[in-house]
Write a structure and sequence with these properties.
Number of strands: 8
Shape: globular
CATH class: Mainly Beta
Number of domains: 1
Distance between the termini: 26 Å
Number of helices: 0
CATH architecture: Sandwich
CATH superfamily: Jelly Rolls
CATH topology: Jelly Rolls
Helix content: under 10%
Radius of gyration: 13 Å
Largest sheet: 5 strands, antiparallel
């Protein structure tokens, strides 16, 4: 089945939109759409799996605990090793940020 990563994005997003593109026991590929969304203040993600994420459209800031933040623009990608605490501290309010995320064990 063929589709396009930019299809079916609602005009209004009260919450981030997570769409699984492929998933099995070893890997998960998802599209994430943010519209000014961020990880709540004081909260950190601590994932059991590795994650590789790319910004396909928009802008975001990702922080690792006790490290300088990464400013991500269209085309930028980032590897987040398992159990490295991280958070999204900002996404663009002027355009939707579309991410491609690959998680694996």
């Amino acid at each position: 089945m063929q589709t396009n990563i930019f299809n079916d994005i609602p005009a209004e997003l009260p919450e981030e939109l997570f769409t699984y593109l492929l998933e099995n026991k070893n890997v998960k590929i998802e599209r994430i759409v943010s519209d000014g969304h961020r990880t709540p203040a004081g909260e950190w993600h601590d994932q059991q799996q590795n994650e590789w994420v790319m910004v396909l459209q928009g802008q975001a800031v990702v922080e690792y605990e006790n490290m300088e933040p990464y400013n991500l623009n269209t085309g930028d990608y980032l590897f987040i090793p398992a159990h490295i605490r991280h958070r999204v501290s900002w996404t663009s309010h002027t355009e939707k940020t579309v991410w491609l995320a690959i998680h694996w064990f």
